[in-house]
Amino acid sequence: MVDVAAIILAAGLSRRMGVSNKLLLPVDGVPMIRHMVMTFAAVTDGPVIVVTGHEANAIKAALDGCDMEIAHNPDYADGQQTSVVCGLRAVPDARHIMVGLGDQPTLTDHDLLNLIDTHNAADPERISIPLLNEQRGNPILVPGSLRERLLADPRSPGCKTFTRANPDHVQFHALASPGFYTDLDTPDAYAALTAGASERTQ
User: Fold this and answer.
1) CA-CA distances (angstroms) from residue 133 to 7, 35, 121?
2) Phi-psi region for residue 28, left (φ > 0), alpha (ψ -120 to 50) or beta?
3) Whole-prediction pTM value?
4) SS3 105
5) Which of 23, 55, 97, 141 could form a cystine bridge with 128, CB 3.0-4.6 A?
6) Tens of pLDDT, residue by residue, the chain (202 residues)
């Protein structure tokens, strides 16, 4: 059994970005989804599971050579919950499972290590969720011992319903890094990201 495995959700339709699939846009010289896989892989000793759906072949091509595994979700159009379930079914046995998004390019490996350390210092048998000013962040950290319970309800499997229905299994952590709370959905958000990167290199 590995200590930390990861699931990255990369199946969405990317509608708010317009014609571009946001996960294929360049971040630090590589496609965003590749950047995210590299960030997660830097802190895990287990595999990074990438859940694909929309433009799955293009996502897979962007990850060629990366240390990751693909889990394709044929039901991705039915919502993010189906991708969470697909990832939970594909991930191997691990003490902890990070469930993250493919569109948080400001998230760093330091942020992820901080989440893991904070989780272990609290109650490692509860689901850890970043929280800042009442805003929930991502990724969340799920004890492997809870995976089967997250999949048990056939009407509403996955994390969202479970964490709200079972607050005794959840702990929130005041993690201040903006990377936990910033996902990239629109052309304006991407333009701001690239402008900031340009300023830092000048």
Assistant:
1) 26, 28, 22
2) left
3) 0.92
4) coil
5) 141
6) 789 999 999 998 877 676 678 999 999 999 999 999 999 999 999 889 999 999 999 999 999 999 999 999 999 999 899 999 999 999 999 999 999 999 999 999 999 999 999 999 999 999 999 999 999 999 999 999 999 999 887 677 678 888 888 899 999 999 999 999 998 888 888 888 887 654 444 4
Which alpha helices (H) appear in 122-172, and where do they start and end?
A: 147-150, 159-165
The enclosing domain of 72 has a CATH number of 3.90.550.10
Q: Which domain holds residue 86?
A: 2-190
Which structure tokens are listed for 180?
């936990």
Q: How many residues does the chain have?
A: 202
Distance between CA atoms of residues 194 and 196, nearest Å? 5
Whether 147 is covered by a domain: the verdict is yes
Helices 32-41, 109-121: crossing angle, 10 deg rounding: 40
Cα separation, 163 vs 176, whole angstroms: 21
Q: Is residue 119 domain-resident?
A: yes
Contacts with 80 (C-beta within 8 Å, 6 or more apart), sequence order: 9, 11, 12
Structural domain includes residue 199: no
- Residue at 200 is within a domain: no
Q: State how many domains the chain has.
A: 1
